[in-house]
Amino acid sequence: QVQLVESGGGWVQPGGSLRLSCAASGFTFSSYSMYWYRQGPGKEREWVATINTSGGTTNYAASVKGRFTISRDNAKNTVYLQMNSLKPEDTAVYYCKSTITKWGQGTQVTVSS
């Protein structure tokens, strides 16, 4: 069964950090680029970051560039999103995605004091 399971979300104060994980199963993870998206309260889902199959190429939305880092471990079938210098506007449900998977349940990130 093709599946992605996100984890690592939670509550953090502004300026804090979180590391999200996304465990993949049911497909050849190392053959697919991976993406992180997010959907804030009352907002549309938006793209956050992309990583290619080897991990050598990454791209970021302007709103997170310089603060977030996407990475992957193909041996563990896992993609990560390291989030630093978090802001209240980063509050959202975060989803990982590949081109052949459906949306998962996501993981909630709340940034507030």
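Second entry:
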Amino acid sequence: QVQLVESGGGFVRAGGSLRLSCVASGASLSNFVVAWFRQAPGKEREFVAAVSTNGRRTYYPDSVKGRFTVSSDNAKNTFYLQMNNLKPEDTAVYYCKANGAYWGQGTQVTVSS
């Protein structure tokens, strides 16, 4: 059974940065496509970033492109989401997802104006 645990969320002012981590257990992330999603209150969960199994390709929606960077460290079985120039509209619970099936429990990110 794959388990994912996120960390790194918190409170930050607009323009600030945070780095989220997602540690996996039960399987090697090197075999998975891994992704980040977020869900703000009253809104649907939305895609934020993904990285391919070999780490060579990354994917972002326009809303975060140029500000967020996804990466993976297979040796640590961990992947990351570096978030820079945060905006109040980035406030949400952030979730990691692996292999299209496994979800973490989420970590809250709050950005004040």
